[in-house]
Every structure is written in structure tokens, then in C-alpha cells.
Design a protein that fits this description.
Blueprint (H helix, E strand, L loop, with lengths): L1 H13 L3 H16 L6 H10 L9 H21 L4 H15 L5 H26 L6 H6 L6 H5 L1 H12 L8 H21 E5 L7 E5 L3 H18 L4 H20 L12
Antiparallel strand pairs: 1-2
Helix pairs in contact: 2-4, 3-4, 3-12, 4-5, 6-9, 9-10, 9-12, 10-11, 10-12, 11-12
Length: 268
């Protein structure tokens, strides 16, 4: 844990440039424009899952792109299937920001993976509406009710980081694809054991996170299994670094973030 915290602090220090600060300010203005709260969620995901980014060929661009991606996903979480006009505005804004930093091929990949993710969320929400004792408003407003999608969503993010920093690497082999999926699922498991979301009975849709018993021990087991996998798998060091960033950052996110430990406010 100590070495991971040191790595996190190193990444944060490396991302303290004027360029990154201005990008954060622009993202905060967009966030406020869409009437959203808790911008710290965006920076939580960015800070933790951009772990080791200072070691990449394009560290600041990688960090800024991840911040935009998390802003896009979390903003859509609020409005998907509730306000189509707002979704269109959010898509237009964040895709416009991304286009400043990504090539046409990278944008094409992101748009494809984003549409696939949204389609999956639609299916998940529709399924939840059919379950007994689940208010339709809750199903509409919280497509991340189990938060698993947060980390499964990191799979295309890992691919984008590879495309951005190592365009000549082979990310399309069966081993590379399966490794990205494996790490994405490990990230999701880290979250699943970390918290339980409950509706506290508010008149509004109000989800809270509570720490599950035995969380730390289970998380450490998942992290150890992931590290062992990365040691044995026959992949380039470049891809291993990005896979390590995802799983180590997820571990830090769910063990250090104040959003998950001891808070009583709703996420939104």
C-alpha cells in the first residue's frame, strides 16, 4: 500500500502543470453548466486511474483525456433515459473537448465503445424496471446502481491510453484483448466487495455507499491475484504498465476515497 500511495503522490505532482489546471477548470465549468454536483468524483477517478501516467510518452494529454472521459460518463449517468436533450448537449460538449486531444482513429474508437456502453446501460435499466420493488425512477436515474459499469468502462479507456501513447503496439491479439477484459473485471470486483448501495427511503432517488464487511482483506486478495497475473502474462511492458495502472488505481480508489468511507451524503 505504501508504495502505491507514493506512486499516487508522484502522479499528482507530475500533473500540477498550468496546462492540466486549465483543462480541469474548463471541465468544472462544463460540469456546473449541466447542473451537476460532486465534481470531486470526476477527479477521484482521474487521479487514481491515471496512476503511473507520468511514465507514459504523453502524460499530461493522457491525464486530461481520462478526466474528459470520466466527466462524460458520469454526466451521462445523471440524464440517460431521463432527458434526451440534455444527453445530446453533454455528448456534443465532451466529444468536442476530446477531439482537441485525440486523432480521428482514436475518436472513432471512443465513439464506437461509448455507443456500445450506452446500449448496454439501456438494456440494464430496462431490466431493472421489470424487477419487483424497484421504483422506475430509481431504475431510470441510477444505471450504475451496482457501480460495476464504472470499472467495466475502464476497458476501452485502457485501449485509448495505449492508442494515445503506443500507437504501434499490438492491442488486438487474443491475449491482449483477454488481458484487458480480465483486468477490467478485476477492477469491477474490487468495487463489488468495497461497497453496498442502498436506497435510504428518501422521496428522491438517493443512493448511499456503505462499506461491506471484510472489504480490505478481499480487496488485497484481488489485488494480489491481479499482480500475479501481470507477472506471468506474456505481454509488452507498455501494456502491462497500463493494466497495472487500472487495477492499482482501482484498488486505491476504493480503499482511500472519502466518497466511500464514512460519508452520509448522496453521490449526486
Amino acid at each position: 500500500m505504501g508504495s502505491l500511495i507514493e506512486a499516487l503522490n508522484k502522479t499528482k505532482q507530475a500533473m500540477a502543470s498550468d496546462r492540466v489546471f486549465k483543462a480541469k477548470e474548463e471541465l468544472k465549468q462544463c460540469w456546473d453548466e449541466f447542473g451537476l454536483d460532486h465534481f470531486e468524483q470526476v477527479m477521484d477517478f482521474t487521479n487514481y486511474l491515471a496512476l503511473y501516467s507520468e511514465q507514459l510518452p504523453h502524460p499530461e494529454t493522457t491525464y486530461i483525456v481520462l478526466a474528459i472521459l470520466f466527466s462524460h460518463y458520469l454526466a451521462i449517468d445523471k440524464y440517460l433515459l431521463v432527458d434526451d436533450a440534455a444527453v445530446d448537449k453533454i455528448d456534443s460538449k465532451y466529444l468536442g473537448l476530446l477531439s482537441k486531444y485525440l486523432s480521428d482513429a482514436e475518436m472513432d474508437y471512443y465513439c464506437y465503445s461509448y455507443k456500445s456502453w450506452v446500449a448496454t446501460c439501456h438494456q440494464e435499466i430496462i431490466l431493472k424496471r421489470t424487477l419487483p420493488n424497484v421504483p422506475s425512477t430509481a431504475a431510470r436515474s441510477s444505471m450504475w446502481a451496482d457501480w460495476r459499469s464504472v470499472n467495466i468502462g475502464t476497458a476501452p479507456f485502457m485501449v485509448l491510453v495505449m492508442m494515445l501513447n503506443y500507437p504501434n503496439e499490438d492491442m488486438h491479439s487474443a491475449l491482449a484483448k483477454s488481458s484487458i477484459v480480465y483486468i477490467s473485471m478485476q477492477c469491477a470486483l474490487l468495487n463489488d466487495v468495497a461497497s453496498v448501495i442502498k436506497d435510504k427511503g428518501s422521496n428522491e432517488v438517493n443512493y448511499y455507499l456503505e462499506v461491506a464487511p471484510g472489504t480490505i482483506e478481499k480487496q488485497e486478495d484481488i489485488l494480489e491475484a491481479s499482480n500475479k497475473y501481470l507477472e506471468m502474462v506474456d505481454l509488452s511492458q507498455n501494456l502491462k504498465r497500463i493494466l497495472s495502472s487500472a487495477v492499482h488505481g482501482s484498488y486505491l480508489l476504493y480503499t482511500l476515497s472519502n466518497r466511500y468511507f464514512g460519508r452520509t451524503e448522496a453521490n449526486w
